Amino acid sequence: MGLSHGVGVTHLCIMMANYLVSGCGQKTAVLEWAETEPTDRESALQRLEAVCMGKARGKKPYRVLGVDYYCASGAGEVASCIGSNYERIILDFGCIGQENQRELLRCDQKLIVVSLSEWQIEAFWQFYGEKENAECKSWSYLVAFGSEETRKEMNRRLKLSFLRIPLSIDAFAINREMMTWFYEILTHCR
Fold this sequence. Notes:
By secondary structure, the protein is α/β, with parallel strands linked by helices. It has 8 helices and 7 strands.
């Protein structure tokens, strides 16, 4: 889940899924959480389907490079995926909201994408002020943007681990650096 719009949550979910499928050989699904009723606006995974499949078929799931993608999903799709033979299920919650915060609590691993850029850092302070408890301190905070000095200062000051997401231009291209990073993140989060 991201604490601001545009911090790269969907990009990260696609990269992680590609790592799990191609790097680890695990059957993986990515579910795009739909907090409210569907809108006329096309979602990121619907646009991905249209580009990769030639058109948006609207069927769940569609598969790209071995990863199953579910657009506009809710509790029914999550339950169905849990009951199937997926080894990993990634929920793309997008930007923080009241409903997706409740759903995040049900997840085994909680990854929060934070931007430490001056114009987006306030979202973290608001979240941290509301959630200052032992449980949320055990979650993993991943930094998409912002200075390295700010990240180090936040680590020191708050005693939280803000882990830098390596630059990735293509969410479908997983190199050795990414494989090492995902291995560490997924091991760290257990």
